[in-house]
C-alpha cells in the first residue's frame, strides 16, 4: 500500500527518523521531571489494576514500581530496566503525567544512546513538524534545544553504528552529516579504498561522498548496474565492515530511491539476484523496520528479539489499551458531573495543556466569587476590570498531587459502584445482561 | 502532506486537542440525555451509557485523525454502518470480502516466516486490519497504539476531574 507511505504521520522512509527524533532527543533532558510525574503514576493507576482486568493485575505492585521509578533519575540510558517490570498501566500513566511526546518513554540501551546522539543531524525543522503532528508542539523546541548538547558526542557514535540506525538514516541531511562527522575512522578507511573505483559513480549520486563510501561496501544500493560485478569482487575483503553499513546503505538508498518511485536494490554477496527474492528482501526489511518502531512504542520490549514474541507483546499491549479505554468509558458513564459549557472549554484547555499531571481545581461552583481566584498582588491596580472577566477562569489553582489523588480514590470509587461489580474476566459486556 | 503539517503546527489543532474537544462535547451531550431521561441505575442502563461513551470516544478519536489512516477510516465506517440498518446487505458483502482477504493471507502465510497467527489476531484488534498486508498492518498498529495512548491519557484526566 504505497499510499500509506506518503502519510505525514511518520512511518514512511522520510518520516521514520523524524518519528524518533523528538522522543530520543528529549530523553536526555526532561528525565528529572519525570520522577515527580512517575510518583503519581502508580497511585493513580491503582483503580484500573483493581478493575478486574487480569492483565493489569499480573504481578504488578504499585509500591515496587514506585520505588523503582524513584531511582530513575540520573542517567539517560537507564530507563529500560526500570520499565521492564511495571506493566503497561504504569507506563501509560508515565506518559500521561510527563509532558513530552508519546514516543519518549522507553529508550532502551546503548544503541539508543547512539541514536540520541545522532539526532542532531536531522533538520531542526523536521522536529517541530513531527512533534506537532503528534499533538505536542513543545516537543520540537525541547528537542531542538537538546540538539547542540548532543552534537559534540556524535563522534563517539561513529564506530558503534548498528543496524538500528538504518531506520534513521533516510534523509539526505542525515546522510551527509554521517559522512562528514560520524564514524570518522570508518569514513577514512572507506574513502581511501573507494577512491579508485567509485569516483565515476560518486558524481552521479545525490548522496555524494557517503554513497561513494557505502557503495564500496558489499551490500546494496547502486544506481549503475554495470558496476555491479567489479564492486562485488572488490567488496570481498570488506564484507565484515560492509555488513555493518550494509543495512544502513541499503536503507538509505532505498529510502532515497523510493522517492523516485522505484527502488534500486543490490544483491548481497552470496544471495540470489532473482527479482523475486530482491523484492522479498525489501519487503522483509520494511517489516523489520516497522517491528523496530513498534518495539519502541511498546514498553518493555527492548530485550525481545524474535518476531513471534514481539507480536505477542504488541497484541497484549493493544488489548490492554483497548481495555483501559473501555474501563475509563465505563467510569465516565457512571460519573455524573455538574458541568456547564464554560467549564467544558476550560477543561479542554487544561487537558490539552496539562503537563506533568498537575492538578487543577475545576470543581468550583459557577457562582463562586471572583475574588478567590485571583492572585493577591497583581490585580490591585486593575480591580474594576476584574468583574468583566468573571465568567472566565483565568487562574487555575494547582493542588497538591497527593491530595487530589486521595480524593480520586475516595470519591471516584464511591461514585462508581457498578464498576466494582465487574467480573474477573475483564470483559465488561457479559456482566450486564 | 505539507499543508497538513502546517495545519497541525497550529497548537489548537493537534490530534490530542481535537480529540479532547470532540470527546468532551459528546460527553456533555450524553450527560444531558441521561439527565433528561430516567436516571435509572439498572445494569442495563449503565451498560447502554457505557456503550455510548465508548462509541463517542472511538468516534471522536477517529474523527480527530480524519481520513489519513486506514484504521480511522475503517472505524468510522464501522460506526456509521452500525447505525444504519439499511447497510446490512452492504456489510454482508463487506464481510465476505474480508473473509476472502483473510483466507488469502492465511494461504500465503504458510510460506512466510513466523507470526502468521499473531498477525491475524492483530488484524482483528486493529480496526480495518483485515484488508492489510503485514507491512501496512504494522504501520497502522503503531499509529493506533499512539492514538490509544492519547485517548487513555485524556480520558483518565477527564475522569480525574469529574471525580473531584
DSSP summary, beta strand count of chain A: 0
Rg calculated over all Cα atoms of chain B: 19 Å
Q: Give the SSE string of chain A.
A: HHHHHHHHHHHHHHHHHHHHH
Structural class of chain A: mainly alpha
| Percentage of β-strand residues of chain A | under 5%
Judged by helices, strands and strand pairing, the structural class of chain B is mainly alpha
Whole-number tally of structural domains of chain B = 1
Determine Rg of chain A (CA atoms, Å). Answer: 26 Å
Q: What is the first-to-last residue Cα distance of chain A?
A: 42 Å
What does the average pLDDT of chain A come to? Answer: 52
Number of H/I helices of chain A: 21
Most extensive chain-chain interface:
A-B, 83 and 76 residues
Order of helices and strands of chain B: HHHHHHH
Supply the number of helical segments of chain B: 7
Fraction of residues in helix of chain B: over 70%
- Which oligomerization state do the chains in this entry correspond to? heterodimer
Gap from first CA to last CA of chain B: 42 Å
Largest sheet of chain A: none
**Total beta strands of chain B:** 0
Uncertain stretches of 5 or more adjacent residues of chain B:
3-8, 101-111
Structure characterization notes:
- The complex is a heterodimer of chains A (433) and B (164).
- Chain A is an all-alpha fold and 433 residues long.
- Chain A is built from 21 helices and no strands.
- In chain A, helix 13 (172-180) packs across helix 15 (208-216).
- The model of chain A is unreliable at 1-60, 62-87, 89-258, 356-402 and 411-433 (pLDDT under 50).
- By secondary structure, chain B is mostly helical.
- Chain B is 79% helix and 0% strand.
- The interface between A and B is large, with 83 and 76 residues.
